[in-house]
Amino acid sequence: MAFWKLSHSSCASRFRRALLLVLSVICIGSVFSHAVLAEDRPVLRIGDQRGAIKALLKVAGELDQIPYRLEWSIFPVGAPLVEAIAANALDFGYVGDATATFALAGHAPIKTINVWRFHGFGAALIVPEKSSIHKLADLKAKKIALVRGSPAHLLVAAAFKQAGIPLSETHLINLTVADAKAALASGSVDAWAIWDPFIAAAELNDHARVILSSQGIIDEVLCGVASDRAIATKRAQLLDFIARVQRAHAWADSHIPDYARVYADDTGVSYEVALKTIERMKVVVTQAVEDQDIAVHQKVADLYFELGIIPAHLDVTQAYDRSFVVGEAGASRSP
User: Fold this and answer.
1) Which of 114, 254, 324, 332 is the most buried (most CB within 10 A)?
2) Contact 116, 222 (CB under 8 A)
3) Which of 289, 210, 223 is nearest to 79 (CA)?
4) Which SUPFAM superfamilies match (predicted)?
């Protein structure tokens, strides 16, 4: 009897070990299989400015169950982002119409396939708290730091034109964001044309003053720019990604504090800066590019040409692909 018990116990033990071995092999095979499948999925390479879109998709739950892989590249401003798309180093990203215009003037092989209608604060001109500058006319013969070809450059050009002041009566200094921030703090420049979250950070951290913003001065669209290669080979992924962005923005409208927390964590700005940025950001992600969107962009290109910022007139219509349409519920569909 004792022998039977011993044999039964030994067999049971061997069975358990064998079962564990089989399960381990299955698990390892499953992990390997998933890894292979993940590598086999198509890749969509996204450019993002300061991680804002990635944070938005993350907090809205739109990074879950994606049938392709996302590879993110983060940029401080839009110019290098759109250059990477033009060079086929990235597939897609959002940049201001001013930035897209500057790239198109350089014959960048890109197309806008989706737009955001931007109704928020936009770019702004800021000055130090104790500056004697209080209005645009005070900037005559002064130095304004900006990123050449950016939405902030557009704001300065449009504001001076609206005020009837020749742009030649001020000094535009092309600087990176980091250098412009330091130049304003040191007094090397008198004003800084920039956008959020840099405006919000300057207001909250450095007590900078806003003397004017894009609102009421210039209409803008944000261009969803893709490479010709991505348009030809990754249409389904691009449509799905845009649909996710559209749903995420709709969700964020009623979850601003939640978005601000993730935005702060992911980008490194404070929660207060993130909240101020998001509260005044009014964006509508379109289902499809419409005539009115191209008209807004064309005015930007015309202004840039009129002021000599770009060397030749541009017909921006040629830089749009209107075949990308996203369904009303955020589900992508082909036109």
Assistant:
1) 114
2) yes
3) 223
4) Periplasmic binding protein-like II (SSF53850)
